[in-house]
Amino acid sequence: MKISFAPLGTPSKGSLIFFVPYAKDSSSTCILMDSVRSIDNAVEGAISRAIETAKFEGNVNSILQIEAPSRLSVNRILLVGVGESSKITRLILQRAGASAINALSKFKESEAYMSIDPYPSLNMKPSEIAAEIACGAKLGSYRFTEYFTKPSPARSALTLENLFLMVESSEESETIFKLRNELAEGVKLARDLVSEPGNIKYPEAIAKDIEALSEFGIEVDIIRRPSLEAMGMGALLGVSQGSIREPIVGVMRWNGSLKGPKEPPVALVGKGVTFDTGGISLKPSGGMEEMKYDMAGAGAVIGALRAIAGRKAKCNVIGVVGLVENMPDGAAQRPGDVVKTMSGQTIEVINTDAEGRLVLADVLWYTQSNFKPRAMINLATLTGAVVVSLGTHMAGVFSNDLELANKLVNAGKLVGENVWQLPLDPRYDKEINSEIADMKNVGKGREAGSITAAQLLERFVEDTPWAHIDIAGMAWMKRSDDPVVPKGASGFGVRLLDQLISSNFEV
Ligand code: BES
Ligand code: ZN
Ligand code: ZN
């Protein structure tokens, strides 16, 4: 879908879209802005009649369509509700843009024109409003069609080829959109990586994608087995030893701080298990194919760095991803094995399916000791238990620093990638003490599974402000009620991390 910006006008084909606010204090249903009024006059009041008939109020997520309006040659007019105008947020605008695109796909529309008005009592210029709507349209129009060899089936087809945003200062709007588009590209990269199957995106393949980020001014370091062995990453190497795919730790660095490259970075760390069979503690076969998305933490970190560097964020950011494949094999690690981590601590591997924490134990330690970050945030599809606690609407966040946890909660609210804090506590920590090593990789049975996993990670963090986000329920959407997140790979975490950085760590 090509997105362009144009001056205000009346199109002669395609679909014409208006974003209309809800009228709180008036007896009329929704507010008709200037451009809608003039079109309403042109169609002899057909729009206002349709609004009356349908009792269309302009609420968020509501859409009214008027097919083949007389006296205009457009296919249809769509009114998309944006709610009370004083309460409009960037997220509401993005979702409205995405909803419009999705509605049009059902009509097999190929061309759409969005007419952008200034809203009363909204502290945003029309050029910004248009850029935000365009960003949402782009996020919501994502489809992964890589492997269809015939025209893609209707369920995934997006028919829209051209989207025009008509706005008074279209050039300014286009400039603003270029920056917002960097974020959308970061989300797209994360979604692509997560959608790809395990036979395509194994560690070395993802390393190639990471190397390609140097185009955006990101410094890249790909660390392979000999160095991982030399550093003593026994826990990460233990997970990968049953796979013919070589383990890799990928490091990305964006130096955008105005204080220079020596300023301590924010570190983003991702679990990148490119396929999780469970290893010798083999997972049941039903649904195992989903475990291609067990690298979604790494995908989000890679996408976030792409977004942050693309918009030239004024902050130093490090991204580190642990890329391994967890397979059963003659060489695979066994339940009961004891591994030595880079930190020197030992772990008894009770269950080879609790592998993400083993990978992160080494990657967190490496990140903290090498880069001395001012804050460290890891994302991981770590436990099925977090899906039991929070379902598919929020990710769980665990932190040794309440301020950092709150920053994540607030950033999440702004972008619609919500996180909810869950506890860490010495009583849970005790549950991972082992009889023969410093710790074991699972707690008591199924109890508090997400917390005991987080407790293990915490043992590899010293005094760095740190947060762990368990995204197991958020990385892949079987169905979605958020228009900017299509079904499938969500790219969860990219917008959250980008917002966390822009709200708290720039300049
Ligand atoms: N990758 C899984 C967690 C997961 C489950 C992610 C569902 C996405 C959706 C993780 O490696 C795992 O297998 N965890 C086990 C831990 C258990 C063995 C203690 C789990 O959650 O069952
Ligand atoms: Zn597992
Ligand atoms: Zn896993």
Produce a short descriptive summary:
The chain folds into two domains: 167 residues, Leucine Aminopeptidase, subunit E, domain 1; 321 residues, Zn peptidases (Aminopeptidase).
Describe the protein.
With 507 residues, this protein is an alpha/beta fold. The chain folds into 2 domains: 2-168, Leucine Aminopeptidase, subunit E, domain 1, CATH 3.40.220; 184-504, Aminopeptidase (3-Layer(aba) Sandwich). Helix content is 35%, strand content 20%. The protein contains 15 helices and 19 strands. The protein has helices at 34-42, 46-54, 90-106, 126-140, 170-195, 203-211, 225-231, 234-240, 296-310, 356-371, 385-390, 402-415, 426-429, 449-458, 494-504; strands at residues 2-6, 15-22, 63-67, 76-84, 111-115, 162-166, 219-223, 248-255, 266-276, 316-326, 338-340, 346-348, 375-380, 395-399, 419-421, 439-440, 466-470, 476-477, 488-489. The strands form 4 sheets. The chain has an 8-stranded mixed β-sheet with strand order 7-8-10-9-13-17-14-15, sandwiched between helices. Strand 11 and strand 12 form a beta hairpin. Helix 3 (90-106) crosses helix 4 (126-140), helix 4 packs parallel to helix 5 (170-195) and helix 10 packs parallel to helix 14. The longest helix has 26 residues, at 170-195. It is elongated, with a radius of gyration of 25 Å. The model has no long low-confidence stretch (mean pLDDT 96). The structure holds ligand BES and zinc ion (ZN) (2 copies). One zinc ion binds at residues 276, 278, 353, 355.
